[in-house]
From TrEMBL:
Residues 7-82 form the HPr kinase/phosphorylase C-terminal domain. InterPro entries: Hpr_kin/Pase_C, P-loop_NTPase. This is HPr kinase/phosphorylase C-terminal domain-containing protein. It comes from the Bacteria. SUPFAM superfamilies: PEP carboxykinase-like. It comes from Amylibacter marinus.
Length: 142
């Protein structure tokens, strides 16, 4: 996956300084996953639109200037949420791609010459717990 500077249709969350970009087509569950992560302690960077840029050797994700402090819940509507500031991107979660391997090799998203861990996460159960564990326990070997 190639990331480009500017706005991306995605949701951004963070566990402390561990920024996570949740990507996928409309209806794949980006907001649902962000909300589930918030339920286990994540902060919301932004729902539905995230700004991507670099700062030194870090890829940074942040809410766009036009961001509203809300998250969409299908069937409920927009609910209030406090937005977190910019965070270094540590993980990209792709909800469009399914990982066929039980113990896959590492995948990476690339922004300029910078690389960040990418997981193909379609149909992974309890994904919010997986993301939290990656944030607090580090990236898996492989």
């Amino acid at each position: 996956m190639i990331l480009t500077r500017g706005h991306m249709h995605a949701s951004g969350i963070c566990f402390g300084n561990f920024g996570v970009l949740i990507s996928g087509a409309s209806g794949q569950g980006k907001s649902h996953l962000a909300l589930a992560c918030m339920g286990v302690g994540a902060g919301l960077i932004c729902d539905d639109m995230v700004e991507i840029d670099s700062h030194g050797t870090d890829i940074m994700i942040s809410p766009p200037q036009t961001a509203i402090a809300k998250i969409e819940v299908r069937g409920v509507g927009l609910i209030d949420a406090r937005l977190s500031g910019p965070r270094p991107l540590q993980l990209v979660v792709d909800l469009d791609q399914e990982e066929p391997e039980r113990l896959p090799k590492k995948h990476h998203a690339v922004f300029k010459q910078l690389r960040v861990r990418l997981i193909h996460a379609k149909n992974i159960p309890h994904l919010h717990y997986v993301i939290k564990q990656l944030a607090i326990g580090g990236t898996p070997q492989g």
